[in-house]
Amino acid sequence: MKVDSKKVDAIVDEYGCHRDSLISILQDIQSEYRYLPEDMLRQVAKRLDLPLIQVYGVATFFKAFSLKPRGEHMVKVCLGTACHVRGAPAVLDEMKRQLDVEPGDTTQDMQFTLETVNCLGACALGPLVVVDDKYHGQTSAGRVKRLMREYVKDSRGK
Ligand code: FES
After folding, report:
1. With contact defined as beta carbons under 8 Å apart, do 60 and 67 qualify?
2. How far, in Å, is the centroid of ligand 1 from the Cα of 77?
3. In the Cβ-directed half-sphere of 146, how many Cα atoms lie within 13 Å?
4. What topology does CATH give the domain 5-61?
5. Ligand 1 centroid, distance to 84 Cα (angstroms)
6. How many Å lie between the centroid of ligand 1 and the Cα of residue 4?
7. What is the mean pLDDT of residues 72-94?
8. What pLDDT, on the 0 to 100 scale, is given for residue 28?
9. Which atom of ligand 1 is nearest to the CA of 119?
10. What's the CATH number for 73-157?
């Protein structure tokens, strides 16, 4: 990805060149680009006069941040115990087949990133799939294809 250094400068300027602003700055970059490009992390470190390793430390500590490009839609399949016993592994297998990616990866068209999680705190709804912030409970392998079709349709309809 081409680094828009002016964009990064604008974000840093908005929060000020304070070390305390680091998380807010990274949140804005993540929100704008859906990940934290390496060159931008370097630029932030320089602007805040922080060691690059410290910026990377924060960027890798919080799960909300990603160092790899993410798709437009985040797909999370819960593999926690309650979801697991209700068939989550089969749901995950079908999701991998539908998206043609492994957990942690993004589809080639940059539409979907697939992740697994251990519990989303809604065990009664298991097996649970969350797409972006929308919960889809009592999911089954058979329902995955239909569910994902909705998102493909939504993406193309924009
Ligand atoms: S185990 Fe899946 S939501 Fe708790």
Report:
1. yes
2. 9
3. 6
4. Arc Repressor Mutant, subunit A (1.10.10)
5. 8
6. 39
7. 96
8. 96
9. 4
10. 3.40.30.10
- Per-residue pLDDT tens over the stretch 38-71: 999 999 999 999 999 999 999 999 988 999 999 9
pTM across the whole model: 0.80
CA distance 52 to 49: 9
Quick one: which of 79, 80, 100, 98 has its CA closest to 141?
A: 98
Tokens 């990274």 sit at which residue?
A: 26
Q: What is the pLDDT of residues 106-118, one digit of tens each?
A: 999 999 999 999 9
CA gap 4, 29 in Å, rounded: 11
Q: How far apart are CA 125 and CA 83, in angstroms?
A: 8
Using the structure block, give the residue that is written with the tokens 């193309």: 156
**Domain ranges for the chain:** 5-61, 73-157
C-alpha to C-alpha distance for 107 and 22, rounded to whole angstroms: 30
